[in-house]
Design goal:
Layout lengths: L8 H9 L7 H5 L13 E3 L3 H11 L5 E7 L4 H16 L3 E7 L4 H6 L7 E6 L2 E7 L3 H12 L4
Parallel strand pairs: 1-3, 2-3
Antiparallel strand pairs: 2-4, 4-5
Length: about 150
């Protein structure tokens, strides 16, 4: 064996013994699963500070509780909580659910003093009535149930 030959003979034989790569007929005929219709969600998302401020000012006139989900696209615990937030939004029709991306609306997150994600603020008439920091589904649900029936 020469100095330039870094593979031993048995390894060369194994490499030569592999069949050439080819697509199988079944692979070519495989089709993607049918696309499912997009899920409808009762969770509102704001992409501009002006839209958020207009909504928030109007919400101060209502007794309806708002749950604000401060989230980020890169946040795994936030992604973990997404199905739960959708589930709660469907279950509690008397509560408004809002999603705010902290990277998109940094000023809004700053106004509420958000330092960790996910953070869920429960608000009535413009005032924070409770808070859940972290991916705590049961705690969030308990606080929603506790506060949704209380008139303030």
């Amino acid at each position: 064996m020469g100095a330039n030959n870094f593979l031993s003979m048995p390894e060369k034989r194994v490499l030569r013994a592999l069949p050439p790569f080819s697509f199988s007929a079944s692979f070519k005929e495989t089709r993607a699963p049918p696309l499912l219709p997009p899920k409808t969600s009762r969770v509102l998302t704001f992409h501009s500070v002006a839209q958020w401020k207009a909504y928030f000012e109007a919400s101060k006139q209502s007794n309806k509780m708002i749950v604000i989900d401060f989230t980020a696209t890169w946040c795994r615990p936030c992604r973990y909580m997404d199905p739960s937030v959708d589930e709660f939004a469907a279950k509690y029709s008397d509560v408004e659910f809002i999603k705010i991306d902290v990277d998109e609306l940094m000023n809004v997150a700053g106004e509420f003093g958000i330092h960790a994600m996910p953070t869920f603020l429960l608000i009535k008439k413009g005032k924070e009535i409770d808070k859940v920091v972290g991916a705590k589904k049961q705690e969030l649900q308990a606080k929603i149930e506790k506060h949704r029936s209380i008139q303030r």
